[in-house]
Amino acid sequence: MAQSNPPFMSGVPELLLLRLLDRKEMYGYELVRSIRSATGEAISLGEGVIYPVLHSLERNGSLKSRRKAVAGRTRVYYTLTAKGRQRLNKLHIEWLRIQGGITAALESPAYA
Prior knowledge:
With about 110 residues, the protein is of the alpha+beta class. The protein has one domain (about 10-105): Orthogonal Bundle (Arc Repressor Mutant, subunit A), CATH 1.10.10.10. The chain is about 55% helix and about 15% strand. The chain contains four helices and three strands. A three-stranded antiparallel beta sheet has the order 1-3-2. A hairpin with a 2-residue loop joins strand 2 and strand 3. Helix 1 packs across helix 4 and helix 2 (about 30-40) packs across helix 3 (about 45-60).
């Protein structure tokens, strides 16, 4: 069974949340399900990971939230701000750089 939150995943929840919220407004549990779906079940992050990241992103101005009544209950929906879009772009560029470096290392011949 795959480890649910390996140490090298640091920063990945933030990147995924920003990317998903760049597409549309969502509430917390919807984001949990969307991460699972968008990653082909390769990444599964629970509410204990997602909500602290959402709150941190909201505090730093990357997200804004609003309460909305749905089927008799209140949900908190999150939306990306301009600052969040800038953060997403920065993280995306950094991810591509890291991904390229790891790919190069994994595909290079062994050093003697």
